[in-house]
Amino acid sequence: xxxxxxxxxxxxxxxxxxxxxxxxxxxxxxxxxxxxxxxxxxxxxxxxxxxxxxxxxxxxxxxxxxxxxxxxxxxxxxxxxxxxxxxxxxxxxxxxxxxxxxxxxxxxxxxxxxxxxxxxxxxxxxxxxxxxxxxxxxxxxxxxxxxxxxxxxxxxxxxxxxxxxxxxxxxxxxxxxxxxxxxxxxxxxxxxxxxxxxxxxxxxxxxxxxxxxxxxxxxxxxxxxxxxxxxxxxxxxxxxxxxxxxxxxxxxxxxxxxxxxxxxxxxxxxxxxxxxxxxxxxxxxxxxxxxxxxxxxxxxxxxxxxxxxxxxxxxxxxxxxxxxxxxxxxxxxxxxxxxxxxxxxxxxxxxxxxxxxxxxxxxxxxxxxxxxxxxxx
Length: 377
Known about the structure:
By secondary structure, the chain is an alpha/beta fold. It folds into two domains: 184 residues, 3-Layer(aba) Sandwich (Rossmann fold); 181 residues, Glycogen Phosphorylase B (Rossmann fold, 3-Layer(aba) Sandwich), CATH 3.40.50. It is built from 16 helices and 15 strands. It has a seven-stranded parallel β-sheet with strand order 5-3-1-6-7-8-9, sandwiched between helices. The chain is globular.
């Protein structure tokens, strides 16, 4: 088949970007001709057979929503010039055969976060909701790949999207994040913890995400400050993401936490070493369409605490780990963290038994098989 995949911008560390490239490579590996249309590409470009990266002419607009509108027009122009069997949009672009819903429903989220009058008067929010409605309204024919059950409920509640248009996908973890052999894992854990200045008795909490606020880093720091001193004195917190170290350190200092126990780490393509080095992942996100890093943690036997707002929270619960219910209460996280730290060895056993029954890397295969079935009809 001839497949067009459209993505506004590619950069190496984004979850949506990684899924895009995995989809394209899986289709190309199967012998399909894949065109990947973007406005910009950061990092090394793929050289896979059957896969070609194309660029739109430069897009100039004052706002992100206006740039996305223009990108949608460029995608449609490019599509008309070619003869594609199927099109897959990775951003909210009307008219595509399939759309990959990497995020939760924006209308649902914005209604929780803002007054109705704010949404009505804000040109930015009106544009975001217009773009989303163009994909999810009952009048649209776009089929939707989803990655969490909560997404389907929210989209149907807000837009009345037909059930037959949703196609659920399993997790799509990079196989590079699967755990290495036991001896290799032990050495990586030891060397990474030494780099962070940790002793064997220290407990390392880990959060991975680009947004200090949205991923709940402030909630983690607040829970750390609330720990009994007998626990708090041996706990360290590492956050991998774009948030400036001064933001994290400033918040920690206000809470009275020693900066020697706080470790801001810049983004990196793979976090396998830190998953092995950590003792507990704490991910109390305010909004998280899925949370790929949660299944990466489970696959590596790392206990997890997350909020119910994470799309992949059912996997965390099935593995026997705590999930903080919605609406979020800081006291619930404080108590859960204090109760979980002494239980980490038992949780690791439960997670390893669960992970042995799961395939956390199947998303690309299932997505491309769905596209193949679509054009075979």
